[in-house]
């Protein structure tokens, strides 16, 4: 972690590597890797495990699997030995027997044709794990060993897109730095920096909302986005104080990527699982910390300190307590002092999830409105082997009896354009039309204070199976208290969350041991059975429902007694709950939240009617003599939204408005630039 904290300020970029830059670049590489400290005990352990031919006895070199390919660990260990060799504070500093082990280990690799069935390891992973050792220990590596090792690295070429392009170009840069080939080094450095640009909406790379896409329009803040963040910060350090340093514009873009996105998806030491991409891995594999997304929180613990070293910008010390919607990724987060609640949706624009390399085999419904609630941060930590993946929290799904289909690299898209989010001063709304596998549902999530309201309607399918909306499925912690009235469950309290039934739907509570294994999630994991106690709360819509609906609220961070008081005095009021619209009133009508899936009307006061002429999300805040109205087009296809409201108002912020009788008609112009589609617009209505 220290290497991220000690990164120093950078200068404005030039485009050429000068002769005096070569030594500086090599020293920067050494300094970067030497910021990681390798203990004497770890070095002793590695040397003890090295056999006479300089292989490691615990590595299966004949393995060819695509993911978690163990032979590459050989090269990663050599990097650690190289760091210890050059660390003046190590007991192994420039020891001859350690130098022999490093050179012998490089020779062992280059004399054998170790390979994985995944091209990535040959062209990216292996060269990436050889380069640092060659530069750190360049002075002790014989020419013959260097030539063979560089030949292995020659499999990397500058090509592809996104994070893959950065990896490949980085390998070329490291390789040609050893050779002193300034032309290819400059080309590789320029390619790395060329990726640090804002992408057009739904193209790969950093999105206008600072989320990250890879493999098409698919959110990958973890996995590819996480590696992108780590790698670019590394190259900022390595290029520093040379003719190829990053420009201030690119530093600013990275700052926004880190603080506006990456920092926000970390909570209490863990990476939010809906943001990790397909890599839902165990934190430890074979007893060792696995270098997957869940283990890299350390990169973000000290972001403020890292970027303060680049320049004098004021950087946030932590993520803000607010609702945020990533409009280019169909993904939202709501954070308070007490909890984090994400929602992952999908649309015709955004891919819901992917599977590949034997990873995410059960993620068929991940982008179907999964809504989690984290308090401690461990509510879902490594729950994947025992999860019922047909009942992900927040989703509405058909409970058929065949195995879940395994996704492909192309993933899937929801069948509707209506997916969006709206941030307001009181909280936020996430909503989408779910259209997949013959199941239809209109789903909304309203976030305010310590509550998450969930409304669903127009639920139907022609399949002869039960349909379920899962309220939560998490580890069971302590007692489950169920309240009933006339045989119907009215509320359930578990682990400081009260789940309150707001409709006439039938709730089911399940609690007990669930059993599974990692192999059903990852092909390279074992099928050893794992059993955990799980709490499951769901809405039963019955078999082949038509126009079914649900409404519930999760009150977070309350005792059982506090929940009882809040249910009576503090809950919002449902104004409309139909197939066309979901509307809630908060704070005695001062704030109103609406998901309008089609043109509709909502009674927002005693006699005051709001006519909505287009699908949209709305927030209405009552002023002393009027309303502040904020609106979003979740389809990202409209140029304007039009409304009528009873009463005579002057409309501020609208170019088109008129009064007809006792009704004011007005329009809200929406952002027209592609980068801003899906953002909110607003008007103020003041009584005449």
Task: Tell me what you see in this structure.
Residues 1-14 and 291-301 have low confidence and may be disordered. With 688 residues, this protein is α+β, with helices and mostly antiparallel strands. The chain is globular. Helix 4 runs antiparallel to helix 5, helix 4 (72-86) runs parallel beside helix 6 (119-136) and helix 10 (224-239) packs antiparallel against helix 11. It has 14 helices and 34 strands. A hairpin with a 4-residue loop joins strand 8 (331-335) and strand 9. Strands 12-13-14-15-22-19-18-17 form an eight-stranded antiparallel sheet, covered by helices on one side. A seven-stranded antiparallel sheet has the order 23-24-25-28-29-34-31, with no helix packed on it. It has a five-stranded antiparallel sheet with strand order 26-27-30-33-32, with no helix packed on it.
Task: Supply database-style keywords.
14 helices; alpha+beta; 688 residues; seven-stranded antiparallel sheet; eight-stranded antiparallel sheet
Provide a quick synopsis of the model:
The chain has 688 residues and is an alpha+beta fold. Helix content is 24%, strand content 29%.
Which structural class matches the secondary elements? alpha+beta
Q: What is the terminal-to-terminal distance?
A: 61 Å
Q: For the CA atoms, what is the radius of gyration?
A: 28 Å
- Which of globular, elongated, flat, extended, rod-shaped describes the shape? globular
* Largest beta sheet: strand ordering: 12-13-14-15-22-19-18-17
Low-pLDDT residue spans: 1-14, 291-301
Largest sheet: 8 strands, antiparallel
Annotation, overall tally of beta strands: 34
The chain-level mean pLDDT equals 92
Please give the count of helices.
14
> How large is the share of residues in beta strands?
25-35%
Query: What level of helicity do the residues show?
Result: 10-25%
